[in-house]
């Protein structure tokens, strides 16, 4: 499937999850998020946001394969939107990380998303760490349910990779002013191999998903989505053909990208055979918000003409730093625009 994005490149988001063998036969899970803004100057929060890496987040956990539970969560945030400063009253985007402790011992089941949203969503948390946790749990659940990884194989070595998921998302603005978003999911299931081995001796299964998701800004809704997927094993490596699954998404045209999109996608893709497609699509809406941050040609002039410390503020209660009554929110002026979708 060819992903042919048109217009000006705005933003890219990369998400990854790696599961590796531990000495105690449990798994180390490491998830990483990187946001790359490709253009524009964004006057926000008393400073100027420039192109480059605007978010870099890492989330680690330990996976108990037999009990299907997660524990020992920890996070690093090398690049955040708000560092501790006089403007933030000493607060920073790293403050909500303590809430990861609420997830210790969580089972990878139907309740995990509720616990994630309660612990890390909205005004209490960080949307980027929440997104990373959702990638970690969704990919781990897929590995448990799909059977592509032989957990109990005796030849696994400590430190050896069992599974890797990458989701790459890109957004651009077309000549007509609307957006094109693309998502590419790649799942690699590994085979146990010696320390020194041929690269393909480590190969078990390769699953790929590609999605083209046009977004109409007037109404902030999906256009006609297109998607395809393929699976290659050792026996089928020469088969490069894709299976078109666009028909599975016919009901999404006109659906809001912002409100209720997760529930709509899960209703549209309820089957196990569509899980990887669903996991890729669930990352489109969070990326859309980041893409919008790069549609900023007019913002510097607006900010220069306004008597505002915040510039372009975030939505109230969208995260810990933009919570109502927080240090940053208290700097809003009477005429400061409040973003809304």
Give a short synopsis of this structure:
With 341 residues, the chain is an alpha+beta fold.
Protein model, in words:
A hairpin with a 5-residue loop joins strand 8 (161-173) and strand 9. Helix 1 (112-120) packs antiparallel against helix 2 (127-146). The strands form two sheets. Strands 1, 2, 5, 6, 7, 8, 9, 10, 11, 12 and 13 form an eleven-stranded antiparallel sheet that branches. The protein has six helices and 13 strands. 18% of the residues lie in helices and 32% in strands. The longest helix is centred in the middle third of the chain and has 20 residues, at 127-146. The protein has one domain. It has helices spanning 112-120, 127-146, 261-268, 275-281, 284-292, 299-305; strands at residues 8-21, 27-37, 42-44, 47-49, 52-64, 69-79, 106-107, 161-173, 179-190, 203-216, 221-222, 226-233, 243-244. The chain has 341 residues and is an alpha+beta fold. The model has no long low-confidence stretch (mean pLDDT 92).
